[in-house]
Structure formats: structure tokens, C-alpha cells
Amino acid sequence: MVTRVATVAFAGIEAVPVDVQVQIAPGNANFILVGLPDKAVKESGERVRAALFASGIGLPPKRITVNLAPADLPKEGSHYDLPIALGIMAAIGAIPQDALDGYLALGELGLDGRLAHVGGVLPAAIAAQARELGLICAAASGPEAAWAGETLDIIAAQSLLALANHLTGHQRAPRPLPARHLPTAALPDLSEVRGQQVARRALEVAAAGGHNLLLIGPPGAGKSMLAARLPSILPPLNPRELLDVSMIQSIAGELVGGAISDRRPFRAPHHSASMAALVGGGLRVRPGEVSLAHNGVLFLDELPEFAPGVLDSLRQPLEAGETVIARANARIAYPSRVQLIAAMNPCKCGLAGTPGHTCRRGAACADDYQARVSGPFLDRIDIRIDVPAVTAADMIAPAAASESSAAVAARVAAARERQRQRFLDHGAPALHTNAAAGPSLIEALVNPDKDSQTLLLAAAERFNLSARAYHRVLKVALTLADLAGADRVTRPHIAEALSYRLNFGLG
Questions:
Q1: Which residues contact 313 (CB under 8 A, 6 or more apart)?
Q2: Which letter does DSSP use for residue 373 in this model?
Q3: Is-cis flag, bond preceding 70, omega within 30?
Q4: 258-303, pLDDT tens digit by residue?
Q5: What HEC string does 271-293 produce?
Q6: Which residue segment(s) compose the domain that 118 sits in?
Q7: Residue 323 in contact with residue 334, Cβ under 8 Å?
Q8: Is there a domain that residue 481 lies in?
Q9: Domain boundary among 150, 179, 208
């Protein structure tokens, strides 16, 4: 007789059904695990054996075969420990075999029989809900699983023994409650930034429309300071965005205590980051920084210091909002709809263009440094702003002179609400920002008048704007109109959008 326990394997953020089959047959005492397991799964046999022994359950001196079906699907991770142990317990009669019917199980076992948290519990819980199954997991994973729905039957136990007591009806475990992370520390406030009115305006426009932004200026001008304050003016995640972000964080094991937060992610990888770290991959494919920043902000400081190949690997995620990792035996996709904020010095010494300073290498100092960033990558950045050095007058000005994040966030929220309603009226409810709109839709929404068309034509011919650049100018112009509360895009909006696009002679 074969005992079956349902579990999952992970392909991106998708939970793929896996059937754990356990057979105990006469023969020499042996524990055989098949079904294309990796090293972590192969080692589960010893963890299961020790956990059962610690729980007072001895394995019979027979041939125990465990099959993870489908057999051609690679199995990775330690979350197979619990379904294997439950299958063996049901096979030897330690728990009723029908007690596992209607449940999906995942969890890691300690040698003392305790259940440990594993990544991917939230996608697994959602998959169980879709298949009308309950979920068996570790107690530490319960608050995370509870977010899948109030109707989901969840058994969250501290140990294998407690789980057996629950399944046999001796001691019932309470259903876990969803946990919410409430950050105690306030976000950095925009009022702390002195001067930089143009950069503050650009940051507000970028936040309102979800546009990519490049800040160029000398060291100490406040580029990183401005970028760090972008989350304080962004609206909180809506329920759909929150679910997507939490599923990625769950796969990556970054949901502390199973608690989720509606704050938008802010990821700032060091410029030494590898391609796998930034876009995902590795021996065991995991989401990279661009996916972990989904529906949030990806901040790349010292942009030219990143390896050129690493930066160019971001071109597809920035354009499509999705990272596709292709392997010989697998194709995995992670959502990667991010707002890119980048900062860089104008040259290697950092002071090109500063009054009273002349680079030793002349114009070649700035040209060579800026050439480290490819044109196709820059083409995907909507707004490029010069951030000059802060003057002494700005530094001694009273702090109250600068507008707070709360005031800017109110205008951003109003602009985003206009965009949400507009896309809803045009049959695109999945879109929430102008930056995410497609070319045909943005052309229909902007519909520039004759004066605006003349200006756009002159700029396109003078600066050789690509089709992508043209549409991104329209998107920024539409965001400027939303911030102004205007019903249509006019020539001043187009002119300001072009000024953001054509800075520094970067195209």
C-alpha cells in the first residue's frame, strides 16, 4: 500500500504540485528517496529518521521507498522533510491515513522533532487554497500562511509530536492569525533636504508617475539623500501589490515572523553586486534585487561603478516588468516592476562642471566615465537631473523652509488616484502609473495638440529621440499634467518633460 501526501515545488513564485508517495515493503532495512531530489532533499532521510526517533516513533526494519512525483521535476529545499515524515507515520499507523487527506504539507524538521520555518509558505498556502486543500506547516510559518485567506484550514504545530496529537485528536492546535509588521522607525523626511528645488521637483514627478530617475552631481550634493527619501512620498502598497511583494519575499525567506508590511520595498545593492545577485539566478535559482524591489524602488548608487554587463542585464526587466531566468532544464520568471533611481558623479574625480574646477584630463574625464553606462540602458531612464553642490546659503537656511514629505506625498497620492481612475475608465484596471502604460495607450491618452506636436517633432529631430524615448516623454508629460490637475497635456508639460530627458547631452 502507498501513502500519499501533497506538497509543492517552487518555480519562480509559482507553487507546483508534488505528490510524496511512501511505500513500506518487506526486505532489508533501507531508506530510498527517488524523484530527482537535490542534496538538501536527499539529506532529509536522516533528518526524518532522527525526528521520528525523538518523537518516540521507531522505523520498522523494512524497505522504505519515498517517491517525489512527478519524477522529472527537480526537487530543491528542505521543506520536503515534513510531508515525508507524515507519509511514513501514516504508513506505519502512527497517525490515521485519512487524516492527511485534504491537506498540503511543508516544513523542515530538526533532529529533536521540532518544525522549522521554510521559505515559500505564502505561495504554498495560496496554492492550497486554490486546490481547496488545507495546509500543514510549522508554527513559525502559521502567521504567514494565514494571509492566504480566512477560510484556509491551517494546522501549525511546534513539533512533530504536537502535530501527531492534533491529527489523532488528542490535542488541537489553534489556527494562527495573520501577522502585520508595523515599522517603528519613521522614514527619512524630505524636509531634511536643503535647497535642490529642481531635484525635489523631479523626485516628486518620478514618484507620481513611477518614472525612472537619474541624479548626476558632485559628491555631497545630496543624491543618495534624495533617493533615500523617495519611499516617504510614495503611496502604500494596495492589496494586490502587497500580495505580489509578499510572495517574492516569502520565496526569498525575507518575511520575518511571517509578518507583512504595506511599505514599498527599497533595495540598494552595492556596486560590486554580481549579475545573479541583481537579476536572480544561481545554482538554486532565487530572485535577485530587481525582483525583491518589485512594486518598490531599486536604488543604484555610483551607477558607472557597476559592471557594464550587470547594468545591461537590467534592460529587459526595466522594459517588461519581468525577469526571465532561462536554464537548460528550466525557465523561471519573477515579477520585476520597479522604479529605478540611479545616482552618479559627472566624472571620475566627481567635480566636472563645478565652478572653479577643471579636470586634469579635460572633457575626456567626464566622457569616459559617463560612457561606462550604455546608451540602451540610459534610454530606459525617463528623467535625468543635474544635482549641483549645495550652497552655504542653503545650509544655513532654517529647516522649516523645506517642504515635508507629508505635503509632497498628498500631491503624489492625488496624481496617482487620477491615473488609477483614468486607466480604469480605459479598460486597463491592472495599470496604476503612467510609467507602466503601453505606447498605444499613452498616445491615445496624451493626444498632443498642434503646438505640442511641433515641439516634439523639433526635439525628436534635433536630439535623435528613439521611439522609446518619445513615448517616455509623453508619459512624463502626462504625469506633469496629473500633478497640475490639468485635464489634458499642453505644450508647457511637453517642454518640461523634454527638459528632463535631454540633460547632459545623454540623448
A1: 275, 278, 279
A2: S
A3: yes
A4: 888 889 999 999 999 999 999 998 878 889 999 999 999 999 999 9
A5: CCCCHHHHHEECCCCEECHHHHC
A6: 2-179
A7: yes
A8: no
A9: 179
> How far lies 363's CA from each of 89, 164, 344, in Å?
74, 74, 17
Q: For residue range 51-91, what is the model confidence (pLDDT) as tens digits?
A: 999 999 989 999 999 999 999 898 999 999 999 999 999 99
- Contact present, 464 and 344 (Cβ < 8 Å): no
Query: In the structure, what pLDDT confidence band is assigned to residue 364 with cuts at 50, 70 and 90?
Result: confident
CA 111 to chain centre: 34
CA–CA separation, 119 vs 335, rounded Å? 17
Integer-rounded Cα radius of gyration of the chain: 27
pLDDT of amino acid 465 = 87
**What cell was used for 69?**
512525483
This model's pTM is above 0.85: yes
Instruction: Give the pairing type, strands 286-287 and 280-281.
Output: antiparallel
- Locate all alpha helices (DSSP H) within 43-145, ordered by sequence: 44-54, 81-91, 121-130, 142-145
Q: 262, 326, 327: which is closest to 295 by C-alpha?
A: 262
Split into its structural domains, the chain has a count of 2
Q: Which three cell numbers stand for residue 224?
A: 543618495
Report the interhelical angle of 491-501 vs 450-463 (nearest 10°): 20
Mean pLDDT of 13-25: 95
CA distance 189 to 67: 55
Taking each continuous run of H as one helix and of E as one strand, the counts in the chain are 21, 20
Q: Rounded to whole angstroms, what are the CA distances from 328 to 34, 277, 278, 332?
A: 22, 20, 21, 11
Q: Could you count the other beta carbons within 10 Å of the beta carbon of residue 221?
A: 23
Q: Which residue, 372, 402, 432, sits at the end of a domain?
A: 402
- Count of Cβ atoms closer than 10 Å to residue 240 Cβ: 12
* Helix, strand, or coil (residue 154): strand
Alpha carbons 189 and 344: distance in angstroms, whole number: 22
231 and 257 share one domain: yes
Identify whether residues 160 and 230 lie together within a single domain: no
Determine contact, residues 127/173, Cβ cutoff 8 Å: no
* Dihedral Cα 175, 181, 182, 183, nearest 10 deg: 160
Half-sphere exposure of 218 (CA within 13 A, CB side): 12
